[in-house]
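Students often ask why we bother encoding 3D structure as a string. The short answer is that it lets us treat folding as translation between two languages. Here is a chain of 381 residues written in the first language.
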Amino acid sequence: MPEKPGLVIRDPFQYSDATLIIPPALVGCLECFDGTQSELDLRHYLVQLTGDLQIGELQQHLIDTLSAAGFLDDESFAQRKDDAERRFASAGVRDAAHSGSGYPATAAELTETLGGYMNGAAPSPGKVIGIAAPHVSPFGGIDAYRAAYSALSPADAERTFVVLGTSHYGEPDRIGLTRKPFRTPFGDTRTDLSIVDRLANEGHMEDYCHAVEHSIEFQVVFLQHLFGPSIRVVPILCGSYAHSIYRGGLPEENENVRRVLGTLGEVAAREGDRLLWVLGIDMAHMGRRYGDDLDALADHGDMQEVARRDRARIASIESGDARGFWDQVQENRDDLKWCGSAPLYTFLKSVPEARGKLLHYQQWNIDERSVVSFAGMSFQK
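And here it is in the second language, the structure alphabet:
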């Protein structure tokens, strides 16, 4: 904001609903709140900054403001976190977190919007066992969403949709499960508790990460648009498997991941065609927003090489080559920053007979200097 420049701080976990704007001159002070420095270090910084020894009031104001907003790791934050997680745990439904922002807030508007998105959809031949769609805001990935959901048919309505989403807020080597129905402007889903409980009994339960996550919510509204509000869903958020990406080895070398993949594989084999797998995934994240020293423009310049590498990974996915795909993800510690890698790997390991087909590949400028890539895919046996 030109009239009020500064560093904007907010909490994506929504333990705090505050937004602070730190004036440019004070941004450097935040390094003093790293858990290793003391208030004396902060005082020294402020004295050097202002040239004034009498900075006690400014120092205390900064500390009090950060604490009151819930941005310091102190008792105030611990209480906020505990309250938020308790409220979500006790709630009977998982309320829509992105209604009114990612998509319209009323059923009528949502029907009209999604109908427009799906206009011109060309059904794919043959029965699918799964699809992959973006989890970017739907208005940014219309073509890829349309391609993926066109692969479904009215006959799929009675199947259980196992929705594998990227977990942006959960632990890296765990999956996030919830027994709660998802509530959207269309109504409430049903949760297939037999499968959720099977996974939960293996110790895989992580709940709060569902509270603010969009990667499953966006898939739910498309599925409800096609098949009605009371679709049967198994919502699973997949951690990033970051330890494997940065330290080498396969994700299942971690005990938690190994048990997750084993249990999901048993469920897939037992349930067979009763399940339809829906992956909510984005692919590369490139440009200034994501820490790259480049101005990214969709389909131009450096993004053409990104497209080539994206398509090489997609080819591994199409052939069901989980190991080859993960080897590609580990190259350069995933400098493409695919945030859909874990759900894809989870699916390929759980349903090894799946073979994919790329329906539409797309790049989108999420801002003037940053690009996200994604695709619509279908999977058959």
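Translate back mentally: The longest helix spans residues 255-271. Keep this in mind for the problem set.
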